[in-house]
Fold this protein.
Amino acid sequence: MADDSSTTILATFKTREAADLAVEHLVQQYGISRPDIFIQSATDRNTAGTQPSGGDASHEQGARSDAPLEGEIEVSADIASNQIAAVQRSLGDAGAIRISSR
């Protein structure tokens, strides 16, 4: 009998760029629908991450100060239980600093 149970996987990232890359991996490699993937601050603060990257990296005038670089970003999705190990590796490759499931 096939195991069709699902697990919620949570991954925490230091930058929005890394979180976005992780979402692309979930969609393209594992066929998870974008509306089933959630991105939010890992705390109660509004944030773009804890480190500058992409559009918030240094510019000619110096690092941008309008992005709240104060907290980590969490990506979560429900995945098939038989995908846990592969998805964890993929999230790690995308830059996750913590990965858990529930």
Observations:
- The helical segments are 16-30, 84-94.
- Residues 8 and 82 are 12 Å apart (CA to CA).
- The two ends are 23 Å apart (CA to CA).
- The chain has one domain: 6-54+68-101.
